Amino acid sequence: MTASQTTDLLRQHGLRPTRQRIALASLLFDGHPRHVTAESLKEQVKASGIKLSLATIYNTLHQFTAAGLLKEIKGISDVTWFDTNINSHHHFWDTSNNHLIDIPASSITISNLPKTPAGKVINGVEVIVRLTDG
Predict the structure, then answer these.
(1) Whether residue 43 is found in the same domain as residue 75
(2) Mean pLDDT per segment of 10 residues, for the chain of length 134 residues?
(3) CA 69, 33, 85, 1 torsion: positive or negative?
(4) Statement to judge: residues 125 and 93 lie in one domain
C-alpha cells in the first residue's frame, strides 16, 4: 500500500493521518491478513527503524479498532490480539507457539445458542479452537 493509499484509508475511516498512524497502518494493512499484539508490532516497528513508544502503539491499535479497521480478539492468552481480517471468522490458537490461524466462518456450524438475558442480543459468535503439539 502506498503512502497515499494509507492516508486515504485513514481518512475514509475518520482518522487524521498522523505520522504514527501512517507508519503503523503501512505495516498492518499490506494486503495480507495479520494477527498482532502491541508487543509484536513494537518489535516490527523497531526492526523497521521507526521510533514509537509501546503506549502509542496500544493507543493507535485501539483507535484503528474503534474506526473499524481492526478486530480485537480477547480471551486467548493474557494479551490482547488485533486482527486485520474484520470479516466474520474463527481461529485456531496454537498454544505451542502463540500463533493464530484463521478459520473461515463457513467451516463451523453453530446451533442451539442459549436464550440471552433480558435486554441483551447476540452481536456475534467467535470460536477459538486450541491446538497443541501432538
Answers:
(1) yes
(2) 91 96 94 93 94 96 98 87 94 92 94 95 91 89
(3) positive
(4) yes
Residue labelled with grid coordinates 502509542: 56
Burial class of 28 by CB neighbour count within 10 A (0 to 12, 13 to 18, 19+)? buried
Range of the domain at 125: 87-131
**Model pTM score:** 0.88
Query: Residue 2: its pLDDT value, please?
Result: 83
Q: Are residues 97 and 61 in the same domain?
A: no
From the list 84, 53, 55, 88, the residue with the least C-alpha distance to 68 is 84
Q: Per the structure, how many domains does the chain have? A: 2
Are the CB atoms for 55 and 3 separated by under 8 Å? no
Question: Count of CB atoms within 10 A of residue 75's CB?
Answer: 9
